[in-house]
């Protein structure tokens, strides 16, 4: 019992002296550490849809992207770019900037010249935070 009490006291002194303090002098809470790490690693996440839902080549396709931040809230004021390309094809990528519509929604229009699976590389940037994610869309004939 005395050994366990001594071990707890030594551990507490180590934490206090090691610089693991918040502004209140207490160590940061586990949830703040987790949220801070999540915010640095994946500050944004995306979902992608098209309008029309069954996109066809040589017809305008509206890319609809929803962006949420690390705390699962809609992210507004974010610069969202999309690079659309087809793997293994020499079409070159189309680069578009998506316009913000509010509540974490962004849109941009594209026309694709053939049916198949197209890669959509999304990049969101705001202040010093940035995240890139590759998604895909299926385009029919």
Structural overview:
A hairpin with an 8-residue loop joins strand 3 and strand 4. The chain has a seven-stranded antiparallel beta sheet with strand order 1-2-5-4-3-6-7. The chain folds into two domains: 36 residues, no CATH class; 97 residues, Immunoglobulin-like (Sandwich), CATH 2.60.40.1930. 20% of the residues lie in helices and 43% in strands. It has 141 residues and is α+β, with helices and mostly antiparallel strands. The N terminus is likely disordered.
In terms of topology, how is this protein built?
Elements: H1 2-17, H2 30-41, E1 44-51, E2 61-69, E3 79-85, E4 94-102, E5 105-110, E6 116-126, E7 129-139
Antiparallel strand pairs: 1-2, 2-5, 3-4, 3-6, 4-5, 6-7
Based on the structure given, which CATH architecture of the largest domain is correct?
Sandwich
Beta-strand share of residues:
35-45%
- Oligomer description: single chain
Overall geometry: elongated
Q: How big is the Rg? A: 23 Å
Distance between the termini: 75 Å
The first-level CATH class name of the largest domain:
Mainly Beta
Overall average residue pLDDT: 79
Look up the CATH topology of the largest domain: Immunoglobulin-like
Uncertain residue ranges: 3-23, 32-40
- State the share of residues found in helices, binned by percent: 10-25%
The fourth-level CATH homologous superfamily of the largest domain is Macroglobulin (MG2) domain
What's the count of strands?
A: 7
Give the strand order, joined by hyphens, for the main sheet: 1-2-5-4-3-6-7
- Please give the largest β-sheet: 7 strands, antiparallel
């Amino acid at each position: 019992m005395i050994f366990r009490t001594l071990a707890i006291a030594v551990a507490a002194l180590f934490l206090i002296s090691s610089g693991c303090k918040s502004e209140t002098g207490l160590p940061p809470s586990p949830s703040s550490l987790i949220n801070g790490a999540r915010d640095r690693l994946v500050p944004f996440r995306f979902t992608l849809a098209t309008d029309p839902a069954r996109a066809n080549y040589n017809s305008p396709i509206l890319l609809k992207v929803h962006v949420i931040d690390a705390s699962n809230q809609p992210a507004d004021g974010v610069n969202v770019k999309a690079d659309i390309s087809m793997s293994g094809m020499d079409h070159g990528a189309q680069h578009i900037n998506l316009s913000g519509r509010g509540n974490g929604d962004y849109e941009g229009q594209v026309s694709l010249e053939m049916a198949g699976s197209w890669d959509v590389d999304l990049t969101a940037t705001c202040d010093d935070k940035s995240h890139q994610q590759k998604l895909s869309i299926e385009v029919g004939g």
